[in-house]
Amino acid sequence: MTVLTVREITASDHVEFIRGRRSASFLQTPAWGRVKSEWRRESVGWFRDGELVGAGLVLYRQLPKVRRYLAYLPEGPVLDWSDEDLAAWLTPMAAHLKAQGAFGIRMGPPVVTRRWDTATVKEGIADPAVRRLGDLPPTERSPEGARVVAQLTELGWRPPPEGGGFAAGQPRHVFQVPLAGRSEDDVLAGMNQLWRRNIKKAAKEGVEVSTGTDLEAFHELYVHTAQRDHFTPRPLSYFRTMVDALGAEDPDRIRLWFAHHEGTLVASTIAIRVGTHAWYSYGASSTEKREVRGSNAIQWQMIRDAIAAGADVYDLRGITETLDSDDPHVGLIQFKVGTGGEAVEYVGEWDLPLNRALYAAFDMYMRRRA
């Protein structure tokens, strides 16, 4: 078999490679490197007989006072994870990144291990003996996911340290609504009665959903949401960079949505799409007028837009693994379960220390900052 080689590629070659695939994470697009401006970025490619067969966005986080870096590939790289010889892909990657000054590598293979359908998750939430998703028998187990985990372990990769300062950056568990081969009526019928009722109520109340460009209006409502729900909001400049970078790479990549009721903004969201994968990325809602169900209306319109665009999946992003009814995070899962989708577990993020002393020093530094 021809040996794979890894080298830096241009952003345009990277984008073309992504366009040639049905889907890839938006965190693996060159544009995302522009969003994460505090990191040094590089697009890398895998070549076989001169043909580009894999690509990845690498973000380099510098260790203080020395020119050594943690190389991070969020939800990537984009390669053939079904290959039974992952060493052929990962060994040249590690060599390239080490030559770039990396003391360690972190990546998040976009490979599913388990799925739980809506009915199973609902039963788990209702059962006081069930505390976590992992306590439930999955609806589906992925042989590919199990094989990838086994191979990574054999190759010396390991999950990040528990409670590390640079904790796992991307969610291992997400909630997704399958769209492939389904009509709007199919998806709506799969939602629970409360979701369908709220969508109908929003329409009856006259909630109007549209796309737009008023990022300041989104951010003002987002800050309001952060204060109400007790999380730290990102600054407006972050979203401005995000919209500009992703929009410049592809005009259909990112979209702002707004739900108004009688002229008042009641909900706003940011949607992202790469190929056939559509994401609900950020959301905000007003504390007032919650009874008009703007959040349900805007989600339904985003799902309809994803279906029209030919998306295979609508991804509501991260959920925690908890199913404990006393845990405040369970409310988020209950909201997403109403869409009739499925909880999905990925293999998670994995580390390969290239210099164990520097890797340990970096983790200690990040713990102190946390």
From TrEMBL:
Gene3D superfamilies recorded = 3.40.630.30
Matching PROSITE patterns: FEMABX
Q: Which Pfam families match?
A: FemAB
Give UniProt keywords alphabetically. Answer: Acyltransferase, Cell shape, Cell wall biogenesis/degradation, Peptidoglycan synthesis, Transferase
Q: Which InterPro entries match?
A: Acyl_CoA_acyltransferase (IPR016181), FEMABX (IPR003447), PG_Glycine_Bridge_Synth (IPR050644)
Family of the protein in this entry: Belongs to the FemABX family.
Q: What is the protein name given in its UniProt record?
A: Lipid II:glycine glycyltransferase FemX
Organism name: Nocardioides caricicola
